[in-house]
Amino acid sequence: MVEVKAYLGVARAPFLLLSVTLVAAGAAAGYYAGDFSWLRTLIALLGLVALHASVDAFNEVSDMRTGIDLQTRRTPFSGGSGTLPAGLISSRAALMFAFATASIGLAAGIYFLIEVGIVFLPIFILGAACVLLYADVLSRSGVGEIAAGLGLGLLPVVGAAVVQGGRYPAAAVAAGVPAFLMTFNLLLLNEFPDETADHAGGRKNIVLMLGRRGAAYVYSAAAILTPLSIAAAVAAGLLPAVCLIAMVPSLFLVLPLRWAFGAAQDPVPVAALGTNVAWNLLTNVFMAAALAIA
Fold first, then answer.
1. Which end of the chain has fewer CB within 10 Å, C or N?
2. CA 226 to CA 267: how far, in whole Å?
3. What letters, b where the CB count within 10 A reaches 16 and e where it falls short, cover 104-135?
4. How large is the average pLDDT for residues 87-109?
5. CA separation (Å) from 40 to 24, 108, 123, 127, 238?
6. What CATH number was assigned to the domain covering residues 2-293?
7. What is the pTM of this model?
C-alpha cells in the first residue's frame, strides 16, 4: 500500500482529473458534430490519463535530480508531491513508472493511428513531444506554459473529438482554445510559489523571464481571454449558444485576479490557487455538458 501511494504521488493523482474533463469536452464536441464511440472515448481517456501521469512522474524525477524538489515551498496545488524527497520510492522506480505509463499512452496513440488514420498523426507527434520533452527541455526553454496548454489543453480536446470520426470538428477547436488558456494559466499561477527553487534548478519560465508583476499581467490576460474566447466562438457560430454557460466558472477568477492586479509581489493565496484549479475543471465540465445537450 505504501508503494501504491508513492506511485500515485509521483503521478500527482488528484490532478489527473483534468484529463477526464478534457476528454469529456472533446468527446462531447465530436458527439455534437455527429460522431461518437464509447469504446474510442474510453481508450482516449485511458491513454490521456496515462500520459498525464507519465509527464508528472518525469517532472518529479527531473525536479529531484536538479534539486528543485529539495528547495520548493509546497502548497496543496504546487511544488510537487514530495514523494521522492520523502524517500517513499527511488527516482529509478519513478522513472520506470514514467516510461511504463508513457507506453500505455503510446499504445493508445498507435491504436488511433490504425483506426482513424494519418489525420491523427499531428496530435500524436505533438503530444509525444510534450510528454517526453517537457521536464528537461521545454520547461527550461521558456515555453513550458505553452507546452502545458497544448499537451493538457488544446490537443486532448481536439484529439478526443478527432478519434470519434476521423475529422477535426470546428466545435472541438473552439472548445480547445479556452482549454489551452486555462492549462497555460494553471501552470503559470503554480510557478509563483516555486520561483526561487525554479531559478536555482535551471528552469526558465514566464515568472523568471518577466518578473512577478509581468507574469501576473500575462496570467490576467489569459484568464480574461478564456470566457471571451467562448463568447467569440458562440458569436461566430462555432459553438452553440448553450456553451455560454461555460463562462460561469470564470467567476472563480475573482480571487486570483484580485491578487494579480493588487498584490503580485506577495505570495499567491492558497485559496486563489484552489479557485484557479476549480475554474479550469468546471469550465471543461460545463463545456462538455453544453455540447452534449446541444
1. N
2. 24
3. bbbebbebbbeebeeebeebbebbbebbbbbb
4. 96
5. 12, 9, 15, 17, 24
6. 1.10.600
7. 0.95
